[in-house]
Amino acid sequence: MRRIFLILLLILAQFANSNAQSVSTSKPWTYWWWMGSAVTKADITAQLEYFSKSGLGGVHIIPIYGVKGYEKAAIPFLGTQWLEVMQHTVREGKRLGLGVDMTTGTGWPFGGPNVTQAMAAQGMTVADGKLSVKPTGQKVKRAAPGGEGFVLDPFNANGMAQYLSRFDSAFAKSADKPRAMYNDSYEAYGANWTEDFAQQFQWRRKYDLLAKLPLLNDSTGNPEATLVKIDYHQTLAELLLERYAKPWTDWSRAHGFVTRYQAHGSPGNLLDLYEAADIPETESFGTSRFNIPGLRVDPDYSIDQFGTPNPLAMKFASSAANLSGKKLVSSETGTWLANHFKVSLSQIKPQIDELFTAGINHIFYHGTTYSPEKEGFPGWLFYASTNFGKTSHFSEHFPLLNRYVDFCQRQLQNSKPDNDVLVYFPIHDLWATKAKSGGGVHLLEVHHVDRWLLDLPFGKLSEKLWKEGYAFDFVSDLQLKKLTADANGTLTSGNATYRTLLIPSATYLPEETLKELQRLANAGAKIVFDQKLPVTVTGNAHHEERQKTFGEVLTQLSNLRNVKVSTNLNADLATNGVVREQLAEKGLTFVRKNRGEGVPLYFVANLGNTFKEGWVRIGKGGQFFKSEPLRGVSMPEIRGNKGSEEIFLRLLPGESCFLTTSADGQDAAEVRNTGKHFDIKGKWELAFLNGKPNLPAPAQLTELTSWTSLPDSAAYFSGKARYRITFDLPGSAASCANAALDLGDVREVANVKLNGKDLGVAWHIPFVLPVGKALKSKDNVLEIEVTNLSANYMRLRDQQQPDWKKFYDINIVDITYKKFDATRWQPMPSGLLGPVKLVY
């Protein structure tokens, strides 16, 4: 019997493992907001089936505020019924091959009904030299029923354990559990103290902070005051890591969960905090300002208010993953790309490409909202765009984006980082400056990187490295302890290797960090100080005698042969064997990885308008294959001697590809620009096929313009229309071999047929499709079905039926966070705007 029992256990384990293996991390996942947790099993199943059919790999449950009229349907968070629908979601996810994650709470940040006043976030101020400590009073933002309450004090010694006790009892009753627990960005505004902070400071910093309180408000540049401020921030950072990030991660792992952690926004060292998680997660909020012709940016988006995405901020998450050997690094992706009902697939792709080049490989869309099937259009919506859900205007073509992400992430997840330079993050120089965030502390946000990153010499150096084609990661003081150096001076963390440790121009350096630099240098590591050596040791306790020792050790270090104080950084990096990729010089953005056994892998994105095609030297050399996601593999021309080869690369603005010396896949025709093109002009027949509110009358066009200029109801139409034209070639079909069809400006997605042959779907910039052998000399029939946004219809819908805006809390707002009102919008250009031409 015992043997039979063991065999059964083995079979069950294998079955469970097969379920786990069926979940894809290469497919994109999505945030899934449960409004009021007013969910039903039937609708959960229906939406999961849609997600699976669309090509998603998983969902992330976030319970939030409720819907008016559904109060009785709301399910309290972590109650018996809530746990049952959560487990139903997990079971259905397994059936459909979808993973499930969830927030360890509702809304954000951590907090809720079991956070007492004593556990709640505290704020400290100093007035007239006296300490004043008060609760911040902040409550959980966007909380769901059963999740309301005070925000947790992130520095409290026992706060996290007490907070998680609620989940202990809940999950003890749950047989089916999510893959991961999630911790959203910090956002504990004004939190800068805890009940034993003074004692902790005394123990860690070796002096009494309470005797130095007036120095925290000093604005004269008093050297001692600066040291005290650094010590204060250092203590906050340590408590946040030890009492918040690590206990939550340890608890999650003990319960069988992996962790996704958004460390940004916190006053700690992001590198250490991200590394504490299994999956570090960054965030892409708003629209980057890519110089891609035809790429639209919502004019109402406020850079002053929200900032723009920045790849250097994203690299903090990927650096932590690379150093610690974590396969996955994720991103909250697509938040507020444009106003509601105005986001196109062509706007999403460049933002994802930027994330890929910053080392991200596990995309989470922001996002989708649970909406009852009976609600119809537009359904329940989260207050912030983008809507990736079932009612989105791009839902029909959503699988195309997901196939693209899946293809890319399979390559990126199954390769290892290949960065030459490890850049030390001198966070103490930041702490020495006046904080630009509330509570007198530096909050390291992804939104306003200018407040903590870009203005520092560290930020300026990182921008230089990024723009000049260097492959690099960031490293913290604590992470330096994990590095070793081999006989060749190569640095390794055990998971990633680097040719050089680069120290930015900095004023302050901890003595512990100097000891680590000395240890690595003595082992042969190549260390470069940019422009100057640090000047001042951190720590106010016994500073004078420690400063003397610091200066002596620093001098000894700088005299070692493998340590350089650089006045010509490019030359010194080259001496250390660091590769400078010409891709960046050409205006291209890239991430370089290694597929194993010395096989390089480059993901290259053209996010600008300075390159279209030309000869490029690839740092690793050799014959490269060009793999275009969803199109195929080609072999570019090569020239030059071994070790200095160049390839002829064609990559138009908005396009992306992989380059590797070993590639599999179907052959793709490579279009070489000869400068020839043929404009397709004449009489276009336009017929509206399906959409809302009704179908406008057919039309004939001699010039391609927005269909909103047509009479009838076309200015309010959201849906699909077909353009049809017949044309002759100026020469033979053979003269147009390997031609491509350039559709010009498409609003927003185009399904194309030529002479009855399906050419594919143009869904991103550039709207170009290969023609193949579909052309003939005479009587070519070109049919283009174009689907537009839903914004124009919402101009009418918001006049006639505004009752869809029925949500509690913030309800629904526009991109300026004002009351949503689509009735004021002007019609958005729609349809095929062209010009349409053959290029060959």
From TrEMBL:
On whether Kinase is a keyword of this UniProt record, the answer is no
**PANTHER family associated with the record:** DNA-BINDING PROTEIN (PUTATIVE SECRETED PROTEIN)-RELATED, SECRETED PROTEIN
Keywords noted in UniProt: Hydrolase, Signal
Superkingdom of the source?
Answer: Bacteria
Q: What's the protein here called?
A: Beta-mannosidase-like galactose-binding domain-containing protein
Q: Where is the signal peptide?
A: 1-20
Which species? Answer: Dyadobacter soli
Annotated Beta-mannosidase-like galactose-binding domain residues: 721-805
Q: Name one GO molecular function term.
A: hydrolase activity, hydrolyzing O-glycosyl compounds
Keyword Hydrolase attached = yes
**What InterPro entries does the record point to?**
Beta-mannosidase-like_N2, Galactose-bd-like_sf, Ulvan_degrading_GH
Q: Which Pfam families does the record associate with it?
A: Glyco_hydro_106, Glyco_hydro_2_N2
